[in-house]
Every structure is written in C-alpha cells, then in structure tokens.
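Example 355.
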Amino acid sequence: MKRMVAFLLMAGCVCAAGVGKVQTVEKMPQHEVAVQCVPVDAAAKPRNVILMIGDGMSSEHVWAAWVCNGGKLNLEQMPVTGFSRTFSANRLVTDSAAGGTALACGHKTNNGMLGQTADGRALSSLASRLYAAPYHKAVGLVVTKAITDATPAAFYAHTASRYNTAEIAKQLCEAPFSVIVGGGSGAFSSEQMQALRKNDQAYVELAAKEHCPYAPERGDFLARQTERALAELEKSPRGFFLMIEGSEIDTASHAADARLAVAETLDFDRALGVVLRWMQSHPDTLLVVTADHQTGGIAIHGGSVQERKVKVSFATTEHTGVAVPVYAAGCGAQMFTGIMDNTQIPQKIFQIVAE
Ligand SMILES: [Zn+2]
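Predicted structure in complex with zinc ion:
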C-alpha cells in the first residue's frame, strides 16, 4: 500500500510537470523579422563581438517557435550555421555552469564549477581578455535571470560552486563591465550597487530582486535592454564585447511548460532582431548565437504553420546531452560552420579578433 501511494505521488509529480504530455501552443504574439540578411565578411576583423546564448535552446525550441511565428524567425536570417557539442569535463550532460564556462572561457570544467578548470585553475573569459590590452573593448552583459546566475557568472567569476552567490556578486563588483542588465539585485548591498555603477560610468539595470518574470509578464525587457546596451557600448572607442542571454528558455523547459518555452524562444528571437537591425549600420561586428545545452528533450508532434499552432511534448525536466545549434553573421562568421566543440566557440571568436 505504502509503495502504491509513493508510486501515485511520483506519477502525480510527473503529470504536474507535464512530462510526456502533448501540449498545444497557439495564438502566440507574432513578430516581424529583420528584412535584410547580414552578410558574412570573411576578410574584415570585427570591432564589436556579440555572443547571444539561448539557455537550454535546442533546434526543437527554435522550430516550435518558428511554427508559432508563422514560419519566420530572425534566426533564419543568419547566413552561417553549425552544431556545438555540449558535454562537460565530468558529464555527458552539462549544467549551465560548465556550459557557460566552456562558452565564456574555452575550457571544459566539471558541472557546477564556474570560470575555473576541474582542478581549480582560474580561467580568463572572453570578456576579460577583450577588455584587457591590447584590445581595450568595453564589455557588457544583458540577461533576464539573476546576473549572478551560472551563465553570466561564467564571464566574470571563478569559483568551485555556482551557488556561492555572495562570492560571485563580490567578483562582479570587481569586474570591468560597463553594461550590467538582468535580475538579481538582492545579491548586492547598497555599497556593492554603487561599485557596479562605477560613479555612474556604467549602465546598471537590475530589474528584479532575483530572476525577472517570464516573457509574457516581462514584456519587451530583453529587446529594449539589448537596444539600450548597444547604444551605450557603441560609444566605446575600441569597440565592445556583449553577451546577451535568453535565460529563461531553460527555466520554462525545466517546468515542462511548452507555452512559456516557446514564448521565451520568441522573446530571444526578438532581441536578435534588434541586434540584426543594429548590425545594418554597424557591419564591423561578429555575431554568434548558440545555446549552452538542451533542456527538456522537446519533441514536435504536429501542428500548422498557417494556423501558427504546434503540438509539443517534453521527455524530461532535466538537461539532455544533444548538440545545439550555432548561428553566425558578420566579420569572421564563416568560422562557425560545421560541427564544433562548445570550447571552440570562444577560441574562434578570440582568434578572429586577435589575428
Ligand atoms: Zn537548466
């Protein structure tokens, strides 16, 4: 009897999470896509580098969003595509700390670790390398979860655990970012908030104590803040490095909520639209869009592009071990075709800027 109750409780949990259940997503707010394709410039060296990370975003998330947007996405405008292998140093299925560290620093580490190797050696991220001499680029982060969460933290923190929030917050205060946007204000004291603002030299917008709410409630925060970040960073005399994260594609997929997972992917695509339009007048830019891993094991069962309706299910509430898409445009974009390791993405970016 006890065993039966335990089984029913477990089954109840699985049901509530929506795993295995086919969910219909329809009537999502539709958006237009950037009209012109951003060309590949194989010869020019980029002044600016923009890395966009859809946390947990697989090809299936993208195609479900594509159906719901009537068969068009800004992601489709990207002239170069590839795949990234996402496994970490100690697991076939990575978490966001090891995945973020691979994308930020170009090294594999163990799940849970940030900005350091599995044996504890601190790693330099793209942001710190491009800020340093001889590059002197301004650096920025725009996310929708806490700014101390694993993905953004991989660009500035070095710690054995992604859950050392106080230490991560302290390390952000010492980092040279001139744009800091997301949630997570609750991790900082008022003195630390002052330190982040650098005498009002930095643009800091932490819009929530912890994570910002999901896209339907958040509105156009990510697109609007992306626009603002570009306006701030383009003033930099030596160009900039900007990381933009669609943070909650992952969270919605952990919750096995198809509607929110699609809403978050569409929101990320709208932010990409802002970047693509900006790149029309700033072609001296390299843009790379990818994911740190896949979340939820999404399957597409049916639907209709004309009706903007898709039927999807989740296989799990965890991350999975599949390769994720890579998209690139602008200066040096040709380097991102084919199948690559996640660690090669920042290595290639650095090589393109440094050469
Ligand atoms: Zn996750």
